């Protein structure tokens, strides 16, 4: 696996700011991540835009967008073209705030040796706090314009608490409902419009 050079990062960033179908963007992101490998992806600086592109491509595909792109000026994070209109979004990942994926992958801690049911339940119970933390992170930036927010919930509870997790979306994202035009949660290949 290889790291990206500065020119490769710039080229990829430029390519992702071009309008393309959600599937084209997802394919470009997937091939890049495959070439990098998880260790390099999570440990090389300057690659956060790739995560934003993955969120944009998944969200765009789920919303039946005709095209999607990252925004060249880095605000908002991405735009979708749906039925002839352009919608703007900020993207954020909701994950365990104490998790340090770079270290996990660097030291091989990402490999799941065992995943008992108690861990599934514990992760599901953390969903509200993870969502609140991700929303707070975006709210603290106090953006000057109006845009939507997409929160990617990086949580696998193996389906045993899905309805409870879904039920927490409104209360867990309520703190940002007035700061964004719309608030969506992206989870398990589904886009949930939470606000308004």
Structural account:
The protein is α/β, with parallel strands linked by helices and 196 residues long. The protein contains 6 helices and 6 strands; from the N terminus they run H-H-H-E-E-E-H-H-E-H-E-E. It has helices spanning 6-16, 22-43, 48-62, 101-106, 117-139, 162-173; strands at 67-70, 78-82, 85-94, 148-153, 183-187, 190-195. Strands 1-2-3-4-5-6 form a 6-stranded mixed beta sheet.
Topology of this structure?
Elements: H1 6-16, H2 22-43, H3 48-62, E1 67-70, E2 78-82, E3 85-94, H4 101-106, H5 117-139, E4 148-153, H6 162-173, E5 183-187, E6 190-195
Using only C-alpha atoms, the radius of gyration works out to 17 Å
Strand content: 15-25%
Order of helices and strands: HHHEEEHHEHEE
What is the helical fraction, as a range of percent? 40-55%
Residue-averaged pLDDT:
90
Overall 3D shape: globular
Number of helices: 6
- Distance from N terminus to C terminus (CA atoms, Å) equals 43 Å
Low-confidence stretches: none
Largest sheet: 6 strands, mixed
The overall strand count is 6
Structural class: alpha/beta
For the biggest β-sheet, the strand order reads 1-2-3-4-5-6
Salient structural properties:
six-stranded mixed beta sheet, 45% helix, globular, 196 residues, alpha/beta
């Amino acid at each position: 696996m290889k790291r990206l050079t500065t020119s490769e990062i710039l080229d990829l960033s430029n390519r992702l700011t071009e309008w393309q179908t959600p599937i084209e963007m997802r394919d470009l992101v997937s091939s890049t991540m495959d070439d990098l490998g998880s260790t390099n992806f999570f440990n090389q600086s300057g690659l956060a835009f790739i995560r934003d592109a993955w969120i944009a491509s998944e969200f765009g595909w789920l919303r039946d967008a005709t095209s999607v792109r990252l925004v060249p000026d880095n605000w908002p994070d991405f735009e979708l073209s749906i039925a002839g209109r352009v919608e703007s979004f900020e993207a954020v990942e909701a994950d365990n705030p104490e998790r340090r994926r770079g270290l996990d992958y660097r030291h091989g801690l990402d490999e799941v040796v065992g995943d008992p049911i108690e861990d599934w339940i514990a992760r599901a119970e953390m969903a509200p706090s993870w969502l609140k933390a991700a929303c707070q992170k975006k709210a603290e930036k106090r953006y000057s314009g109006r845009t939507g927010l997409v929160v990617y919930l990086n949580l696998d509870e193996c389906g045993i608490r899905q309805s409870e997790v879904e039920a927490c979306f409104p209360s867990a994202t309520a703190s940002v409902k007035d700061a964004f035009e719309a608030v969506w949660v992206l989870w398990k290949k589904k886009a949930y419009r939470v606000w308004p």
